[in-house]
């Protein structure tokens, strides 16, 4: 018996985008919803991603749903850690919140939004936290606005949860969240379903059993897997190249201001290169003029948005329009 990788776009959708009971189990575990607070039913909402198809693509994949109370949940699987990632999560969550308000409606019609990001990388590494004199961030972290003095967490309209898979402990998983993390990390290594695994996790694992895939589904899974490996390799190489270029340019200046300028230029160059690398890996043609306009964008936040859009865009023109929007506003 062989199991597919649950972080693969195709498999993630196969499990969580079509089986509400499994998605509901994931939500309750990651948000610690128990008893009267447990989510008992969900309704799928349109996703911002393209429909599930053979040979999907590497994407910032999300599955959206809402519960009986009207709370919207956005569950995201993210494989590439690029600067601005957390900013993008906040931006998209707030966008989902304000997007509910229709013309002529009152603000009290807005419902809560919870953004859940499952990340195949560390956002807050322990070493970095320690270096700054900060407490370590656990594998599963939950965030919302709180009053600074009292700690009163009264502003719960937009909430966040992050599951950092590399922080999975070596010990046997003993919580719902750690069981999910364990499946995301170790499913491809399994040869059978663990006998002590509770039902909802067994159901998820059963859907990742390659023996249940049609040949078309196997081809789709393998295509997405190859795209993931290719984009990760290219993006990592281009990003490192951009950082190195920035540092070199800064040191040549010989002044702290020059270094900052060079470092920023390197980050910009690396982000633009990452956009082009993702488009290339997805076989989306980029003409000379389009390439020049993407590389001419110097705003890092806009480039972060371009990186996200590049994973789902159907043409380079979509990226050019986004990259050009900032210059038009300026």
Question: Any chance you could write out the topology, listing elements then pairs?
Answer:
Elements: H1 9-16, H2 20-30, E1 42-45, E2 61-67, E3 72-78, H3 85-98, E4 113-119, H4 126-131, E5 140-145, E6 155-164, H5 176-186, H6 199-207, H7 215-253, H8 256-281, H9 288-296, H10 300-310, H11 316-329
Parallel strand pairs: 3-4, 4-6
Antiparallel strand pairs: 1-2, 2-3, 5-6
List keywords for this structure.
330 residues, alpha/beta, 11 helices, 12% strand
Task: Outline the structure in words.
The protein is of the alpha/beta class and 330 residues long. The protein has two domains: 9-213, no CATH class; 230-329, no CATH class. It has helices at 9-16, 20-30, 85-98, 126-131, 176-186, 199-207, 215-253, 256-281, 288-296, 300-310, 316-329; strands at residues 42-45, 61-67, 72-78, 113-119, 140-145, 155-164. It has a six-stranded mixed β-sheet, sandwiched between helices. α7 runs antiparallel to α8 (256-281) and α8 (256-281) packs parallel to α10. The longest helix is centred in the last third of the chain and has 39 residues, at 215-253. It is globular and about 55 Å long. The chain starts with 8 loop residues before the first helix and ends with a helix.
